[in-house]
Write a structure and sequence with these properties.
CATH class: Mainly Beta
Distance between the termini: 21 Å
CATH topology: Rubrerythrin, domain 2
Number of strands: 5
Low-confidence stretches: none
Bound molecules: zinc ion
Mean pLDDT: 92
Radius of gyration: 12 Å
Length: about 70
């Protein structure tokens, strides 16, 4: 499996050449740490309300994110 790329803007991890989360193309293969934000029981619920990690990283959608992007 190829290493996923991390979006420099929202830290979303993807195999595409464009970030599916914010539509940005500023992707990096140089990142450390992966964070998985699981969906809440209510899929529309903001993960920042229930997850410390999501609120610290300002993640508003469940998914896989890089902890640190260079
Ligand atoms: Zn993004």
């Amino acid at each position: 499996m190829a290493k996923m790329k991390a979006c420099r803007d929202c830290h979303f991890l993807t195999n595409e050449s464009q970030c599916p989360n914010c539509k940005g193309t500023n992707l990096s293969t140089s990142y450390t740490g992966i964070v998985v934000i699981l969906p809440a029981r209510d899929p529309l619920e903001d993960p920042r309300k229930t997850s410390y990690v999501a609120s610290r990283l300002n993640i508003d959608k469940p998914g896989k994110y890089a902890l640190k992007v260079r």
